[in-house]
Automatic annotation (TrEMBL):
One of its GO terms (biological process) is chorismate biosynthetic process. Keywords: Amino-acid biosynthesis, Aromatic amino acid biosynthesis, ATP-binding, Cytoplasm, Kinase, Nucleotide-binding, Transferase. It comes from Methanococcoides alaskense. Belongs to the GHMP kinase family. Archaeal shikimate kinase subfamily. Residues 60-148 form the GHMP kinase N-terminal domain. Its EC number is 2.7.1.71. The keyword Amino-acid biosynthesis applies. Pfam families: GHMP_kinases_N (PF00288). It is an enzyme of class 2 (transferase). This is Shikimate kinase. GO terms for cellular component: cytoplasm. It catalyses: shikimate + ATP = 3-phosphoshikimate + ADP + H(+).
């Protein structure tokens, strides 16, 4: 007998990368990762597949499934298949989306529920166990789960603030990957006094100023070009940043600016794709 479950979770963009100070902020976007889970008592192993990425590391989604079963004390094995609109390891929180979607799909297969923050914390634990994160990325996990803009303390796994905003999001995603686990933590930590200033701006609700400051700081620390950000500022954009540990950049804009920036970034001739989406304020459920 098999038990099947499906779920999705959101990708996200960065306001504050938490690696310098363990305090972060992020917003959920309208790009989804879907997970299909199949559980059976006939097996005790967990096998994950990332559709279209045969060489992808499936430890995170296998561990996510395992943690749900452990929590309920159920002895089963199974498979999980993810497919994603979120480019993998680009800074757009593909890992948080994959963990959240897998946990919810496993709950769906079992006919069980968890409190939203317990599900988020389980995904953070899976990410730490799989070695794909530095701080646990509780900020990204909350943005992926609840949508809107979230401000968090990743050391305490505390959701400090959540706001909803109707804004478009324009993303420039280069055709390459940058894994959080291999990012330059030492350089990021050198930024702490200035990242604190950006975090305070985020707490005051000045998300666009906060993210632009974050972007220039982390481009400097991680060796990414600021050209893409400068092109956005020349158009009049106020909020633009390197997202996560890169290489993608995202901007918070109104509808009219979204069209302008999509064209400007698309015409740059830098290899990569421009994605026009928006903040997803619905999330999967409210905190
Ligand atoms: N769709 C997916 N299915 C299964 N695992 C995934 C998926 N997407 C990402 N992952 C896992 O997450 C890892 C990438 O995590 P990483 O934190 O480097 O990327 P990210 O979350 O997109 O970036 P950032 O944290 O900077 O936003 C992959 O190596 C893989 O293990
Ligand atoms: O691995 C991590 O701890 C993180 C990675 C990036 O996505 C950051 O944006 C996030 O704030 C923390």
């Amino acid at each position: 007998m098999t038990f099947t479950g499906q779920a999705y979770a959101l990708g996200a963009g960065t306001v504050i990368n938490a690696i310098a100070t363990w305090k972060g902020a992020a917003f959920g976007v309208d790009l989804k990762t879907f997970a299909d889970v199949e559980l059976t008592k006939e097996s005790s192993s967990f096998i994950g597949t990332i559709e279209g990425v045969p060489q992808g590391d499936t430890t995170l989604i296998e561990r996510s499934m395992e943690l749900v079963l452990e929590h309920f004390g159920i002895e089963m094995g199974g498979t999980v298949v993810t497919r994603s609109e979120v480019p993998l390891a680009s800074g757009l929180k593909s890992s948080s989306a994959a963990a959240n979607a897998t946990i919810l799909a496993t709950l769906d297969a079992l006919g069980e529920t968890l409190e939203p923050l317990d599900a988020v914390n389980m995904g953070v634990r899976a990410a730490k166990d799989a070695g794909v994160t530095i701080t646990g990325a509780f900020d990204d996990a909350c943005a992926s789960f609840f949508g809107g803009i979230v401000v968090t303390d990743n050391r305490k796994n505390e959701l400090v603030k959540r706001t909803e905003k109707e804004m478009d999001v324009v993303i420039f995603a280069p055709d390459r990957q940058s894994f959080s686990s291999q990012t330059n933590v030492h350089n990021s930590e050198l930024l702490a006094p200035w990242v604190d200033m950006a975090y305070d701006l985020a707490l005051e609700g000045e998300y666009e100023k906060a993210m632009t400051l974050n972007g220039f700081l982390y481009c400097g620390a991680l060796g990414f070009s600021t050209d893409i950000m400068m092109e956005a500022l020349k158009c009049g954009v106020k909020g633009v940043s390197l997202s996560g540990t890169g290489p993608a950049y995202s901007a918070l804009v109104d509808r009219k600016m979204a069209d302008t920036l999509t064209k400007v970034w698309g015409d740059l001739g830098t290899s990569g794709k421009v994605i026009n989406t928006k903040i997803n304020n619905d999330g999967l459920t409210k905190p």
